[in-house]
Design goal:
15% strand, globular, 364 residues, eight-stranded parallel β-sheet, two-stranded antiparallel ribbon, alpha/beta, 32% helix
Length: 364
Amino acid sequence: MHDSLFQPLRLGAIEAPNRILMAPLTRGRSDPGSVPNAMMTEYYRQRAGAGLIISEATGISVEGLGWPAAPGIWSQAQVEGWKPVTDAVHNAGGRIVLQLWHMGRLVHPDFLGGAAPVSASATTAPDHAHTPTGRKPFEPARAATLDDISRIVDDYGKAAQNAQAAGFDGVQLHGANGYLVDQFLRAGTNLRDDDYGGSAENRTRFLREVLERLVAVWGKGRVSVRLSPNGETQGCDDPDPATLFAAAARVCQQAGLGFVELRQPGSDGTFGRTDVPQQDAVIRSIYTGPLVLNSDYTADQADTDVSSGRCDAISFGRPFISNPDLPWRIRNGAQWAPNVDAPKSWYLPGPEGYIDYPALEAVG
């Protein structure tokens, strides 16, 4: 059943046994200091049947992480915390890459000792931030200086090296969902008049420099990127997404990435609905490597898009929360378990709604 999803796929240097990838999912279960723990080890081990696990978004620096109990990859303690995770996934026959995250203007000053967050330009995100003491309005960001940009690129490089030390199979740059890379890409948040602003090509410069640094650490076949080219996301928007993401696709092609993942939100996506033309065809016409689509897919829809050649694989997010054995269920036509108490349980501390969803064979 759904045979196209169970064909092996080469994602750069990574051999995926199936085309059902686990999308990055922020879950907020790390220990103090943004250190991964034994509960996270079990969570990822349970889901090792995915063709490839893309880890939850992981902060590259204190400056870049503004989500309570999200993990990091800048300290030695964090590296040591991730090692049991990667060992468990590998021992279960899986593969896992680390998603590298800088939130930019979406970091509340509470995480920074009161300092302003950094972004492409001095702008303020809409809505509210999640902080350790509750939801608070976002505050104005400061525009990154050229020294800031150089330093942040260095932070990405150090994080990539730490990911190697932690035993990951590669890294993915989080370039989506209104975070720092996206803030540089989009004209609505990038108001710069230097080499990092203005034209679409200039606005992709930061993306290119970060990818070049990651490739220098890992090699082309073990670096990927996630983009969200369809409409507004967390206050990030662009009036000409086709031109912008064609330019971004050229950067990905020139970098020789192992794969590109695109978030294609549906009507009830976490970051809101986007009633705009989908940009995957534009990107597919330029970037010739494996293309992965994400968001709100059923098994039938995934099979259709892979078998038609629209994409090479599908990354599933929320279904993997309550279905640790999602590929097995798809192969056997089994019912998917619902997410109980969602979305509240997505981010609560503790094992409930995290590692207590059984595999179907265990309950059947």
